[in-house]
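Researcher: Structure prediction, please.
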Amino acid sequence: MIEIQPMATIHELRVCAQMMHTQFPWSELNFDLPACELAFKGSFKENYVVKDGREIIGFAILQVQGAFSGYIQSICILPAYRNKQLGSRLLRFCEERIQKNMPNVFLCVSSFNPNAQRFYYRHGYEKIGELKDQLVRGYDEYLLRKSLGPRDEFLQRKAEEEKESAV
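Model: Predicted structure follows.
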């Protein structure tokens, strides 16, 4: 049975960092293992693992607070588990987590990764910016967003919903 759950142990972090280190696109971007481990750390991050029984088959790193809240930093499903709707399921999980508090979900996708670009566009993301040579010279990162609307309207609706549920 496939489950998505919060990362709970240093062992899970190390398995996910190794996964990141060996998988495309991070391998193409020359992320070494220490950089991959560091990617999971930070006071405003939430890390999730995707498990098939006891085996870790994927992960997600979210930035949920701070200056760039609502950011899906990384999402990964092992190749053997792709094309089984698990990436879509993990993406929906991330979106629902972020959209509890924020109307906008952001992520970056590499210019050399057309499969990931198609995946995100198919799920309603729009390209809103381009970061030239962001990580490696010659490769750009496309900033994508999926929006429920402006933040002020979202917060007003949320306050009204909370007020109604308190009655």
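Model: Helices lie at 10-22, 33-39, 86-98, 114-122, 151-166.
Researcher: Thanks, that helps.
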